[in-house]
Design goal:
The protein has 5 helices and 90 strands. It is mostly beta strands and 1321 residues long.
């Protein structure tokens, strides 16, 4: 801002500083934040320059002093105990004076008296006062005599207004009002007596005019536009310049009915614009600053006028030149530009904000080009003469405009219950006198209110009672002595008998801003209001102790001319209906019909009430105000008409408002009739303190900061943010009663095992001034944190605070650990930013979903005589901790059939001594259950039961080999010996351990492997040892039972022979039959192989393994019985061209393999390819006939590139009746025919000894077979047997064209002229 710019930098830039500057720029007052270590305090500092006394007044934290500023100086001051006892602030004041300004520098340092040390000085205030701009405003001494003389010169009504502007007690006000009323009555009586003597006309006419206009679209042209764009980092900078021009024409017309005048206008216009500017673009956002110069805007207004008030008509015309040399504007805009390229590129531009920052316009140059007209005389005199002047001051909107021979208006200065009106007319008759009378009706020309009332003259002031709130129509009759009558009409829109109405709607009910108040003023009256009213601000309704009474101007509410229907001519509805009597009532189907019904009352439709339930419509002639309250009844809603009444935005800044007090904005308004009304707002409560809480004990953290609108996500209003601290942050301690974990009221939950929700409850938050607007809560891993659950409103879904539970719950997944609840209370401040109290609960809610760990139960000792069982256990819980343990004994690890659960406290030594009775022969499993603080449990047990058993276990089976349950007779592994065992059991105490295991050349001997320890959990074991070929070895094992005193049993294996040599011999082939060996095959569904000749003298052949290889890719190995000699692998589907190899492994009894591979075969799925097939006669040029009937001869050629042609099969067939029948061979359909030559060469087949029928058709069928046994059959083309010669019927010589003429001689011979050819048939 340029206002008081020399004071804008009076304080250093820092968070929390706030200053106000006086309007005369001679005083500045600041609220400063001063920080010492972890303490921060606020102090006020101010400086004021008094030019009249040439002094500077400086203050800081209660210290204030004035200094003479005739010359520069420097002072030192100490202000004690600002941060506590022994801590002071050392101030340094330096004032520099020159001819133009006074510079004040106030700095300070915080000092400790005990340590005798100070911090570094900091600048507190550094204003500069402009001496040249300062004014000396001397206060004038009050002179009572002078005031009395001024009051004597004022009119009585003005004195009454002056008296009303002061807050005077009711008795004195009544006395003054009575005195002024008596004085006014006297004056009015004299005025009324003088009115009948005045015959002058009113000075002005009120004309009724209708007008319209139309502007043709502007035709513009862009002369040039240049721009340049270049990047600066991520920013694109564009400079542009251009020029454009345009021209247009506007038409206008106007018709005035009382003056009987018509006008029409045509205005051509042209102009030139030059512009330039710069644009900065970041991503899709662009900021643009441009200057536009309008050069020589020129127009030629041309007007033609016509006056038709009387004959002859008056016609005139004129043309003017209007030239504006220069108009300069600076515009700023913010836009979003998105460039899209699909088939082509285009840019979408959206303007977010635009504003004209500055403008200048040179004075317009106006010249008249010509003026023409005619002025003919009118000789027909009127009966009534026009009134030309006003000699009484009344509302000019309340007189007639329909006929200037009659004028009526309401007289001002009256009391609303004693209204008067002035009626005036002017008529003359050259031959006789004229008498006047008037009638009043509610319609034009009517007399249903007054009829034929004598006037006594052309002008009267009457106090006759007339209805209020509706239009009144007056008819004045002028009668001469002959009884001839002429009439003239006039009207007033209403006869006002009510005070002005309206309301002052404060912007906010509760505010936290100490400097700002505002309200919206709305007023309405039947009569015209004065252009200005009076307004003041004070503590309560009607007071002015904050801002004294002063004038303010209001404006008329603009009409909604763009409304598409009648309802859009009214503002948004408000709940309730007015307490006044309606001017009309009707039952309608909706508010839109109620709006139409209201508009039918013309200017008396100010608002309407509509009940959505009963459909009742009430038309009101007023709005909410002192005389019309808005009351809630059923579903009534009030709609105020747009464009009726006056409004004003009232705003006050730089106030000094106090906490806990209610401030009202009070207004006084008056209409042209002198009716006045006082309208006040309901008041704004000032609140500076955050909400209070229930008792918080052992506080761990407590601070109040100025967080503004960021104090909470739930702000009721973020306008006019208070600079003062508005956010109290507290971390409670043990014993606090504000915030609790869990949803049980007032119970602080410490542990929970439910990790799918988090809950809290709170109480005791209150705000005596504003009340509570909302609560938010959050959850974090540390106090005041919100990293688990962000702040949210737990009551957002509830429409009424009465339904608030103050027990929020949120569904979410929680990991195990500690969680801290934080609750915020936001008060109901409407302005300045909400005041917030945040309470962080220091007691965590621990989520524990992991049951405790039971690491073991050990050290069991049972005394069979006393029954005392002693045990030790090891349990832990990393979450909520172990609270208790349960002890039990069961027959299994899953029951407590021997001893039911008994609960014991968890001790430090983790030891239990319990008296129990354990029966013989029953396994007694000692069980322990750990219980943590969320009652999650984990059960553990001892490693072995306590069992009293006197019988050994029953021996099972010992097998040779490492695979459990399988017994080997042979083994090929000479480097280790493996054994496995099963089915060892003990009906009473079960198997508990394996004492030892060993290997020997006889059962029970350990000459190969000595006794070795083996784990109880093992079912097999292998010992590294060197074994001899073709030698038998035995395994020995000793197993113990699980008795309290264990017994054991020894068992042996049946032995295993070592065979380290593989199987011998073996032949393998491709093919499905034993002995067959394929080279090619067409079968795609399986792979075939066969073998023989495998043998093993030691351990025999026990099985085979077959693996297929398809084009180099090995398939899965398949096991085959030892009795099989062939195999078909149907698990794979091969393809044409694949090469198949089979790998066969023979396995002996010791598991050794002997492997052989076949030579392979190829898959050929395509039959032979035909190259040519036909009869031999076709080769001799006779393709379809044969002259021989005892033989056929055919040739063909085939090829097969994959497997080759193996041979052919041939047959001779006769075609008869569309089917073929075998002619040769006589038995069967085919004979074999060996391949002649290589693939692709011609094979010739000659079959003799046939008896072929003359005229019959024959074919030869050929079947070609390849080496993969695939065949294909083809036929020769049919040949017909024809052994007889042709028969000659006739010979004709001559022309073949019938049009050609034949010449015949006398002997009937054709004469032929050609020598080289002849045509015959």
């Amino acid at each position: 801002n340029t206002v008081c710019s020399h004071l804008q930098q009076a304080v250093p830039s820092a968070s929390g500083h706030f200053c106000t500057i006086a309007p005369d720029c001679l005083e500045i007052s600041c609220c400063l934040k001063v920080k010492l270590l972890r303490w921060t305090k606020q102090f006020t500092a101010s400086a004021r320059f008094d030019k009249c006394r040439s002094v500077v007044e400086v203050s800081f934290a209660g210290w204030k002093k004035e200094y003479d500023v005739s010359k520069s100086f420097e002072k030192k001051v100490s202000v004690d105990d600002l941060f506590g006892a022994g801590i002071s602030v050392k101030l340094s004041l330096q004032v520099t004076v020159d001819s133009t300004a006074i510079a004040v520098l106030l700095s300070g340092a915080v000092c400790s008296d005990k340590l005798d040390r100070c911090t570094s000085p900091s600048v507190l205030l550094q204003p500069i006062f402009d001496i040249a701009a300062a004014e000396c405003k001397q206060s004038k001494r009050f002179d009572a005599a002078e005031v009395i003389e001024k009051l004597k010169k004022l009119p009585v009504t003005e004195i009454q207004k002056k008296l009303a502007s002061f807050d005077i007690n009711g008795t004195l006000t009544s006395l003054l009002s009575a005195s002024s009323r008596a004085t006014l009555d006297k004056l009015r009586s004299k005025i009324v007596s003088l009115l009948g003597k005045f015959a002058e006309e009113f000075p002005k006419l009120v004309n009724f005019c209708k007008s319209g206009s139309y502007t043709f679209p502007v035709i513009s042209r862009q002369f040039f536009h240049y721009s340049v764009t270049f990047p600066i980092g991520p920013v694109w900078l564009t400079f542009f310049i251009g020029s454009r021009g345009g021209y247009s024409t506007s038409l206008g017309w106007e018709a005035c009915f009382l003056s009987m005048e018509g006008k029409t206008r045509i205005t051509p216009w042209a102009g030139l614009v030059v512009y330039g500017g710069a644009r900065v673009t970041i991503f899709i956002f662009a900021v643009e600053l441009s200057i536009h110069g309008h050069i020589v805007d020129t127009s030629f207004p041309t007007q033609l006028s016509l006056n038709f008030a009387k004959m002859p008509l008056k016609v005139g015309g004129r043309m003017d030149l209007v030239l504006i040399p220069l108009t300069v504007e600076i515009w700023a805009a913010v836009k979003i530009e998105i460039r899209i390229c699909i088939w082509g590129c285009f840019t979408i531009t959206k303007t977010i904000w635009t504003s004209r920052l500055w403008s200048y316009r040179a004075p317009a140059i106006t010249r008249n080009i010509f003026t023409i007209g005619n002025y003919d005389h009118d000789f027909s005199p009127p009966t009534f003469s026009h009134l030309s002047s006003l000699d009484y001051d009344f509302d000019q909107e309340r007189r007639s405009v329909s006929d200037e021979a009659c004028r009526v208006g309401q007289v001002g200065g009256m009391f609303p219950k004693e209204p008067k009106f002035l009626l005036e007319t002017a008529a003359a008759d050259d031959e006789s006198n004229v008498k006047f009378s008037y009638s009043v009706g509610t319609y034009f020309g009517g007399n249903n209110v007054k009829n034929g009332v004598e006037m006594g003259g052309p002008k009267i002031v009457s106090s006759d009672s007339l209805p209020s709130g509706i239009p009144l129509y007056f008819t004045v009759s002028a009668r001469n002595t002959e009884g001839l009558t002429s009439e003239s009409q006039c009207s007033i829109p209403t006869f006002d008998t009510t005070l002005p109405s309206g309301r002052v709607e404060q912007s906010f009910d509760v505010s936290a801003n100490p400097f700002h108040l505002s309200a919206f003023f709305v007023a309405h009256d039947d009569s015209k209001l004065l252009d200005a009213g009076r307004v003041a601000v004070g503590l309560g309704v009607g007071s002015s102790n904050v801002v004294p009474w002063h004038d303010f101007e209001y404006t008329s509410i603009s009409k909604n001319d763009d409304a598409k229907d009648d309802l859009q001519r009214f503002a948004s509805p408000r709940l309730g209906l007015l307490s006044t009597k309606p001017v009309g009532m009707k039952m309608v189907l909706g508010p839109q019909y109620c709006a139409s019904f209201c508009l039918s009352f013309a200017s008396h439709c100010v608002s309407f009430d509509y009940d959505y339930d009963t459909r009742e419509c009430r038309v009101q002639k007023t709005i909410e105000g002192p005389d019309a309250e808005l009351r809630v009844l059923r579903s009534f809603h009030n709609f105020e008409r747009i464009g009726v009444g006056h409004s004003k935005w009232l705003e006050y800044r730089n106030l000094s408002l106090e906490h806990g007090k209610v401030y009202a904005i009070n207004t006084r308004i008056e209409n042209v009739l002198g009716y006045s009304q006082r309208i006040s707002s309901k008041g704004t409560l000032i609140d500076f303190t955050p909400p209070d809480t229930a008792p918080i004990l052992n506080v761990k953290y407590n601070i109040t900061t100025a967080d503004g609108c960021s104090a909470s996500i739930k702000q009721k209003s973020c306008n006019e943010i208070t600079p003062w601290p508005n956010h109290r942050i507290v971390v409670d301690g043990e014993g606090s009663l504000a915030v609790f974990n869990g949803h049980v009221p007032f119970e602080d939950k410490l542990y929970t095992r439910y990790n799918n929700f988090v809950s809290a409850n709170f109480r005791g938050f209150y705000d005596d001034e504003a009340g509570i607007f909302a609560y938010t809560w959050a959850v974090g891993r540390t106090p005041l944190a919100r990293n688990v659950l962000a702040y949210g409103d737990p009551h957002e879904h509830l429409p009424d605070p009465r339904h608030w539970t103050n027990a929020p719950l949120e569904l979410l997944h929680l990991d195990d650990g500690k969680y801290f609840i934080t609750v915020q209370a936001i008060n109901n401040v409407d302005s300045g930013g909400s005041l917030v109290t945040t309470v962080g609960h220091s007691t965590p809610l621990l989520v524990d979903t992991v049951p405790p760990d039971v690491h073991g139960v050990h050290g069991l000792h049972y005394n069979e005589t006393s029954g005392l069982l002693t045990l030790f256990y090891n349990v832990s819980d990393s979450g909520s901790g172990v609270k208790e343990v349960d002890f039990g004994i069961g027959k299994t690890i899953h029951d407590n059939d021997v001893h039911h659960w008994t609960r014991y406290g968890h001790g430090e030594h983790a030891k239990l001594r319990v008296l129990v009775s354990i029966p013989d022969g029953v396994p007694a499993w000692v069980r322990l259950r750990a219980v943590d603080n969320v009652y999650l449990m984990t059960t553990g047990h001892a490693d072995r039961p306590i069992l009293l058993d006197h019988t050994p276990p029953i021996a099972g089976f010992v097998h040779d080999g490492k695979h459990s349950g399988f017994n080997l007779a042979f083994t090929s592994d000479s480097n280790q010996f493996c054994m496995n065992w099963d089915k060892f059991h003990d009906e009473d105490s079960g198997i508990n351990s394996i004492a030892y295991a060993g290997v020997g050349t006889r059962a029970g001997r350990f000459d190969v492997v000595s006794r070795r320890s083996v784990s109880y959990h093992q079912k097999s074991v292998c010992f590294p040892v060197k074994l001899q070929h073709n030698t038998k070895y035995f395994a020995t094992i000793e197993v113990s039972n699980g008795a309290y005193k264990p017994l054991s049993v020894i068992a042996f294996s049946d032995g295993v022979v070592v065979d380290i040599t593989p199987a011998e011999g073996g032949r393998v082939r491709d093919g499905s039959n034993l002995g067959s060996d394929w080279t090619f095959s067409y079968d795609e569904t399986a792979i075939f192989s066969n073998w023989d000749g495998f043998s093993d003298n030691e351990s025999s052949i026990v099985g085979y393994e077959v693996q297929s290889v398809v084009s180099g890719k090995r398939l899965a190995v398949q096991s085959v019985s030892a009795l099989a000699h062939s195999h078909a692998d149907v698990s794979v589907h091969v393809q044409h061209g694949d090469r198949i190899v089979s790998i066969i492994s023979a396995i002996n009894g010791a598991g050794t393999k002997t492997t052989r591979s076949t030579d392979g075969y190829v898959i050929d799925t395509t039959p032979p390819e035909l190259l040519v097939i036909r009869f031999a006669a076709a080769l001799e040029g006779v393709p379809f006939y044969q002259a021989v009937s005892d033989s056929v001869k055919a040739v063909w050629s085939y090829r097969d590139p994959e497997s080759g042609i193996r041979g052919y099969r041939v047959g001779v067939h006769e075609i008869k009746f569309g089917s073929s029948f075998t002619v040769y061979p006589t038995v069967g359909d085919w004979i074999d025919f060996p391949k002649q030559g290589k693939d692709g060469e011609i094979n010739t087949y000659l079959q003799g000894g046939l008896r072929l029928v003359n005229g019959a058709q024959y074919i030869v069928k050929v079947m070609a077979i390849n080496n993969a046994d695939l065949s294909i059959i083809h036929d020769t083309e049919p040949v017909t047997i024809d052994t007889s010669p042709p028969v000659m019927r006739y010979v004709v010589v001559g022309t073949f064209n019938p049009k050609d003429e034949e010449r015949i001689d006398v002997k009937k011979r054709i004469i032929h002229a050609g020598q080289t050819s002849m045509m015959a048939v």
